[in-house]
Amino acid sequence: MTRIAVLDDYLHLAEDAADWASLDAELVFFSDTIDDEEALIARLQSFDALVTMRERTRFPRAILERLPKLKLIAGTGRRQANVDHQAASELGIPVCVTVGSGANGNTTAELTWALIMAVTRHVAWEDGQLRQGRWQTRISEGLAGRTLGIMGLGRIGSIIAGYGKVFAMDVIAWGPTLDAKRARANGVDYVAFDELFSRADVLSIHVILSELSRGLVGARELALMQPSSFLVNTARGAIVDEAALVAVLESGRIAGAALDVYEREPLPADNPLLSLHNVLLTPHLGYNTGATLRQFYQASVANLRAWMAGKPSNVINDDVLDHRRK
């Protein structure tokens, strides 16, 4: 019988979220995330298919090559940055996505705005101080009249631009494919790359992670920011050089940061971000609502059913179809 592993079910929601019984397969649900390569291979070597949750468990070539039974990765979300697509293709492993399911942009945009409000008004910090008997320990300013910088004016970035205008902010934007005409159509001002950093009181990141955007925000870019400015990242952790960000936060070179995404997820317990008092951290909640997760799992079941019928659907490494594993 086909064996399927559902990985990183950290909220114990998957089993009741979809009609897994319709698959006529043996299913095992795992709630933990394994970082150790040998332990992960030992756990997964007997499975034919995997259902993965976003960027949690990573599948580089070194792991995929040691899973000879693996015939399908049914990922959740529109992209599978946790999987080496080229290696999967060469090994004959289709990688599926849940197109048309899950977050429509609003959930991530809503969290982004919550983080902007919370980090600029020191909400989490003051909550902690109040519980220790201290009353109003930091000065904060409102958002009206300040400049919101948006990196990447796509689906989510455009929603954030709208929020910024509602809060009477001046909104500027830069993106790798953005031009002045499209910026004006969204009611924002197009600026050059460096100007985005130097002018923004709040800089919110919404570009897609790719080889071009990996490390796009480094020490040079962070040095352009104002000492009173805040950086917010709900896109992908690897877009920002984490060591460089820690350095400017430790030195007070910028006022603070709010982060929902990290280079490694879950965030390791020894990560220096956890000890900083001017950074607000959330555990990749942007897409993470009950409705989104249920839609992810239901779409994954549909992908698994199509694959078991011999017609894989929503495959993003199309070149695999010529030599996929039987």
Short description:
The protein is an alpha/beta fold and 326 residues long. 32% of the residues lie in helices and 14% in strands. The protein has 2 domains: 3-102 and 290-322, 3-Layer(aba) Sandwich (Rossmann fold), CATH 3.40.50.720; 106-281, Rossmann fold (3-Layer(aba) Sandwich), CATH 3.40.50.
List the helices and strands and how they pair.
Elements: E1 3-6, H1 14-17, E2 26-29, H2 37-44, E3 49-52, H3 61-64, E4 72-75, H4 85-90, E5 95-96, H5 106-120, H6 123-131, E6 147-151, H7 155-166, E7 170-174, H8 180-185, E8 189-190, H9 193-199, E9 202-205, H10 219-223, E10 230-233, H11 242-251, E11 256-259, E12 279-281, H12 290-308
Parallel strand pairs: 1-2, 1-3, 3-4, 4-5, 6-7, 6-9, 7-8, 9-10, 10-11, 11-12
Helix pairs in contact: 5-7
The value of Rg in angstroms is 21 Å
Q: How many helical elements?
A: 12
CATH class of the largest domain: Alpha Beta
Number of domains: 2
Instruction: Output the strand order for the largest sheet.
Output: 8-7-6-9-10-11-12
Helicity, as a percent range: 25-40%
Oligomer: single chain
- Mean of all residue-level pLDDT scores: 94
Overall morphology: globular
Order of helices and strands: EHEHEHEHEHHEHEHEHEHEHEEH
DSSP, total strands: 12
Assign the CATH architecture of the largest domain. Answer: 3-Layer(aba) Sandwich
Predict the CATH topology of the largest domain. Answer: Rossmann fold
Derived from helix and strand composition plus strand pairing, the structural class reads alpha/beta
Low-pLDDT ranges: none
CATH superfamily of the largest domain: NAD(P)-binding Rossmann-like Domain
- Separation of the first and last Cα atoms: 14 Å
Strand content: 5-15%
Q: Largest beta sheet, briefly?
A: 7 strands, parallel
